[in-house]
Amino acid sequence: xxxxxxxxxxxxxxxxxxxxxxxxxxxxxxxxxxxxxxxxxxxxxxxxxxxxxxxxxxxxxxxxxxxxxxxxxxxxxxxxxxxxxxxxxxxxxxxxxxxxxxxxxxxxxxxxxxxxxxxxxxxxxxxxxxxxxxxxxxxxxxxxxxxxxxxxxxxxxxxxxxxxxxxxxxxxxxxxxxxxxxxxxxxxxxxxxxxxxxxxxxxxxxxxxxxxxxxxxxxxxxxxxxxxxxxxxxxxxxxxxxxxxxxxxxxxxxxxxxxxxxxxxxxxxxxxxxxxxxxxxxxxxxxxxxxxxxxxxxxxxxxxxxxxxxxxxxxxx
Length: 317
Ligand SMILES: Cc1cc2nc3c(=O)[nH]c(=O)nc-3n(C[C@H](O)[C@H](O)[C@H](O)COP(=O)(O)OP(=O)(O)OC[C@H]3O[C@@H](n4cnc5c(N)ncnc54)[C@H](O)[C@@H]3O)c2cc1C
Description:
Blueprint: H1 3-15, E1 24-29, E2 41-48, H2 51-64, E3 68-71, E4 77-79, E5 84-91, E6 96-99, E7 102-106, H3 111-120, E8 123-124, H4 136-141, E9 145-147, E10 156-158, E11 163-169, E12 175-179, H5 180-183, E13 198-205, E14 207-208, H6 211-228, H7 250-256, E15 263-264, E16 267-269, E17 277-279, H8 285-303, E18 312-314
Parallel strand pairs: 2-5, 3-5, 4-18
Antiparallel strand pairs: 1-2, 6-7, 7-13, 8-14, 9-10, 11-12, 11-13, 15-16, 16-17
Helix pairs in contact: 1-2
Bound molecules: flavin-adenine dinucleotide (FAD).
Residues 35, 69-77, 91, 107, 132-135, 137-139, 141-142, 144-146, 192, 198-199, 229, 232, 237-239, 312 line the site of flavin-adenine dinucleotide (FAD).
């Protein structure tokens, strides 16, 4: 046995005493674990159900030389049709608790669950992100953001505004609590992009507010989103495909090029929002990539602007 086979054997031997074998699957299709519903199988998939479990799985993968990838809700990734040669660690560490106005959440906690719990407690700060599929880890990874509707709050809000600290499993294998400065948040980015740190848990600082006002914000934002985005339940997607282009708008450029409705296989540029590609049923990653390339080429030729994907491409295409 050589190469990855050897690494898998070492991983399996070491994992026996540490990870729950019932939660380790082989040749598991990844499409159901992504909001795009696209992607071939991972050689190994492990459901980590606590921060300790997540840290152990990452450390074992690193020690045995198995390539690994931490997956949240899969709302910002395109998995290749050939899948992923290695271990996908699905982050199901979902516990969270409140201490006064402070919210501490494991990194697999689902932002929607945090929002509804916070609103019930009369705590404000994360309600703006309602309707956006994300775990805490995914939110921190790319500094989750939301352009609030006009006229009252027309500005982009970022999760870093309520972020207090994060417990990381650093790339050198230590567990360390870091502050906002360490995270180097930016638009669609954080320190996690350039390093192999894994977010284990995060703490957010919220503010007391009237639950009735929070409820109103939830409903306004949900209806704003519902009227401007294709419905995820009917049209699987990963939200915006391309990075924002300051002052221009990637979606606007795509729309100007007449690309709404452009389709390869079952991957289509949404008629509702030109920066979103939807899966009409059986789209493959290769269909999506063909649509991406076509949009990039046409926009470059017609406007001189470069469209850059903001999503992560995982595995073999
Ligand atoms: C319908 C729709 C609407 C959307 N609207 C918005 C929007 O308005 N604003 C916005 O900002 N985004 C939006 N998105 C994108 C998406 O919701 C966010 O990027 C979200 O934060 C992804 O979270 P996730 O848990 O699904 O991460 P995943 O997609 O699973 O992972 C994304 C990246 O984060 C890394 N990662 C995940 N967890 C960890 C961890 N614990 N430690 C280290 N790295 C980790 C992964 O390895 C991967 O590289 C939208 C997506 C959809 C489908």
